[in-house]
Amino acid sequence: MPQTDTLAALIESPEVQADLQIVRRGVDELLVESEFARKLARSRSTGVPLRIKLGLDPTAPDIHLGHTVVLNKMRQLQDLGHTVIFLIGDFTTTIGDPSGRNSTRPPLTREQIEENARTYYAQASMVLDSTRTEIRYNSEWCDPLGARGLIQLASRYTVARMMEREDFTKRYKGGTPISIHEFLYPLLQGNDSVALRADLELGGTDQKFNLLVGRELQKEYGQEPQCILTMPLLEGTDGVEKMSKSKGNYIGISEAPESMFGKLMSISDTLMWKYFTLLSFRSEAEIAALRAETEGGRNPRDAKVLLAQEIVDRFHGQGQGEAALAAFEARFRDGAIPDDIPEVNLAGAPLGILKVLREAGLAASGTEAQRNIEQGGVRVDGTRVEDKSLQLPEGSYVIQVGKRKFARVTLRG
């Protein structure tokens, strides 16, 4: 163990400060930063890498760009030489994480979990370096825990502390049922940190309580407590709700290049900069310069194209972003999308295309909307609409009528 004065000097060294700057980028919170700086300094002094943990429950088979916000941070830590642990919560998924929910989350069957888990790590490896990633399943230690072990674990945390969690408090005060098994989720997630002897755990801002439970349980078991790093939740293509497959506002990392490119081009000019910070591998200086150029008069579309190309190239291979751009522009060759198309927000999704056209001001009446479709003059994200009964789910769409009428329509439930 390095001496205290040696560690203090190392913390202020250019190397550790540079590491901290990388870690801080885009972060919502780093708790406790002084402790993490000490861990970084000790790691540099001893040559022993830190153990960085990220747990994901395979509740769906696909990973979207919202998930990669945390994965990108893991990759940065991996590139700094630390051990990253990609933990698949195959056991905790059978409980269902109640974070941010106002009702009990239905647990998945073992078969559903195994099916989803099959693709999880393969997709995560599109961001992480698989040769330097430790993959674990929390059933390794949760299954052998048994009833006796679970009771002993539960004795380490109080109901009062559990009720400090905002969603539990709201549900309790509102008379909404809370099942006992939901209390087990943060306990078992915290116990994962004990089992893995984590130095740092990452998660979205909605995971803060669960991450802190891990820190407290490590203290209970005589371990040095982990630090926690929370990343902002990324809004989806609607620009309102966090990216989620269930909300229909997601961009999957395994989506076809043209689909991925088109969805990225549909985000607002304002949200684009958050996407740059959380998703782009460009330096902060490069992003700041690009933003200054845009604020100085450069077309924001140029910046959005760069972002979309970078992300498509990352997940589909070099040159695919350029090909997707060419395909995107070809779709609108007969009527290029103006730079300043109106943005319309509508509630009540899914909505019928005829109602969307009326309420977005693209047709004066249902009859006119129907006639435009029959004449082949209506396109949604470049695809001609032929079905007058088409229902559009939640999401953001570029809708075109004829050659000159456009609107970016965001539908919410």
At the first level of CATH, what is the class of the largest domain?
Answer: Alpha Beta
Q: Helix tally? A: 18
Q: Kindly report the CATH topology of the largest domain.
A: Rossmann fold
Helix content: 40-55%
Q: What is the percentage of strand-forming residues? A: 5-15%
Strand order in the sheet with the most strands? 1-6-5-2-3-4
CATH H-level superfamily of the largest domain: HUPs
**Structural class label:** alpha/beta
| Largest beta-sheet characterization | 6 strands, mixed
Question: What is the alpha-carbon Rg in Å?
Answer: 24 Å
Mean pLDDT: 87
Low-confidence stretches: 100-104
**Number of domain modules:** 3
Report what the structure shows.
Helices cover 47% and strands 14% of the residues. With 413 residues, the protein is of the alpha/beta class. A 6-stranded mixed beta sheet has the order 1-6-5-2-3-4, with helices on both faces.
Offer a quick outline of the entry:
With about 425 residues, the chain is an alpha/beta fold.
Protein topology:
Layout: H1 4-11, H2 14-24, E1 29-31, H3 33-46, E2 51-56, H4 65-79, E3 83-88, H5 110-124, E4 133-137, H6 139-142, H7 146-154, H8 159-162, H9 166-173, H10 180-196, E5 200-204, H11 208-220, E6 227-231, H12 257-266, H13 269-279, H14 284-295, H15 300-316, H16 320-331, E7 343-347, E8 351-352, H17 353-359, H18 366-374, E9 378-380, E10 383-384, E11 391-392, E12 395-401, E13 405-412
Parallel strand pairs: 2-3, 2-5, 3-4, 5-6, 7-13
Antiparallel strand pairs: 1-6, 8-11, 9-10, 9-12, 12-13
Helix pairs in contact: 1-3, 2-3, 10-11, 12-15, 12-16, 13-15, 15-16
